[in-house]
Amino acid sequence: MPFNNENDLKDVMLKYSFAKKVLETELSILIDEYEFNNGYNPVEHIKYRIKTMESATKKLAKKNLELTVSNLVRYINDMVGVRIVCSFISDVYKIVDIIKSSKQFIVKNESDYIKNPKDSGYTSYHINILVPVHLFDKTEYIEAEIQIRTVAMDCWASIDHKLRYKLPSTIPEPLEQEMLLRAEEMLDMDKKMDMLNDLLKKYIN
Ligand code: 0O2
């Protein structure tokens, strides 16, 4: 079933693309400034994306919602998405602090899936923010989801995502158990890497 109003859809997609541009600029300024002040860049890499219509449609269907533009705006909170990948857990929290202390964004909600992993084993820090987009005659606040995670968490999530895509329905129990174990091992390794980083700092300071 197509979306109810094509013009509204085009309008909202344009605003998502503006919000992505603002985010790219603002985040890179904040991170460059942090690096300038601290001589250290906590980011490994960043990926910005607008969710595809295919993925948004699937998500609305999964939530048993009609394919309308208002449902898209109201219930799909990650149309604009950013994934920030760091080397260490401590860097993830540095990025969280940078974003939360920025005057540019309004923090809508946040979920610490590192302290409280999801049932699947998924770990990441999620922050949903409102990005101000200054249009010709008004300012609109567009929601974006920022996922912050370590390289190891990113690797786990990417494999988990592939598994879920390949399988016709839910993940079979034995596979789910294996992924849960890998998630625990991965988090354990990340914590050890953080300790190693602390040790390293003693030698270089
Ligand atoms: P995609 O294709 O990565 O964009 P909701 O956003 O409403 O579905 P919730 O619980 O409010 O659900 O949002 P949450 O927890 O912030 O999760 C949203 C996104 O986090 C997902 O977007 C995934 O990117 C990621 N995520 C959450 N749980 C898992 C998981 O178990 N495995 C993996 N690999 N990723 C997860 P999408 O749209 O579901 O997917």
General description of the model:
It is a single chain. The protein has helices spanning 6-38, 53-62, 69-75, 89-101, 151-166, 173-204; strands at 45-50, 80-86, 106-112, 125-134, 139-150. It has 205 residues and is α+β, with helices and mostly antiparallel strands. The longest helix is centred in the N-terminal third of the chain and has 33 residues, at 6-38. The chain is built from 6 helices and 5 strands; from the N terminus they run H-E-H-H-E-H-E-E-E-H-H. The chain has a single domain (6-156), classed as Beta Polymerase, domain 2, CATH 3.30.460.10. A hairpin with a 4-residue loop joins strand 4 and strand 5 (139-150). 54% of the residues lie in helices and 20% in strands. It has a 5-stranded mixed β-sheet with strand order 1-2-5-4-3.
CATH topology name, in short, is Beta Polymerase, domain 2
Q: Please state the CA-atom Rg, rounded to the nearest Å.
A: 19 Å
State the end-to-end distance.
61 Å
Reported CATH architecture: 2-Layer Sandwich
Percent in strands: 15-25%
Q: Would you tell me the structural class of the helices and strands?
A: alpha+beta
Average pLDDT, all residues = 94
Named once each, the bound ligands are: ligand 0O2
**Low-pLDDT windows of residues:** none
Task: State the CATH superfamily name.
Answer: Beta Polymerase, domain 2
Count of extended strands: 5
- Integer tally of domains: 1
- Tell me, briefly, the overall form: flat
- The portion of residues assigned to helices is 40-55%
Helix and strand succession?
HEHHEHEEEHH
